Amino acid sequence: MTHSASASFLGSEFNDFLFAPIGEERNGMLLSVLSALARLDVDPWQEAAELARLPGEAATERLASMIAALPDGPSAPSDPRTIAARLVALLPRRASSNIRPRQTAPGVGTAIGPRTVMYVIFMVFVLGAQWVMTCRQPPAPVDNARAPASSTASTQMPPPSAGQ
Question: Would you say the C-alpha torsion 29, 35, 36, 39 has a positive or negative sign?
């Protein structure tokens, strides 16, 4: 079976269908749709997507022919069409049109809720108040008289005594 990247793009919408049992194998294990499609060298997710796009009757016929073609199918003899009809009912159904919905990033195109609007208004108010407060504060006075003229202080010598 060739590996396809389609599994990573299709979410779990097909899990009910793909992991559903077709029947019991001769060794007693359940045979899932996923295993059966893999044995037929068919990409399970791609096939599930194709079957979901088909009308119900066409999807049932297609899946029934695949089940009948399984080399080591279910041990109990049963009608592949009955099994296929049960399994096709598990597929997600799309709208009747063939137009696929456009994929968008999460959050794009969604309506902005009232909480978001209130948050934005609050943030604008807070930022505006901070700006007004910084503009109204007088500049800090600079007192140069107390600051030393240079970083090295000169030591003053007392004037020599003239009368000694």
Answer: negative
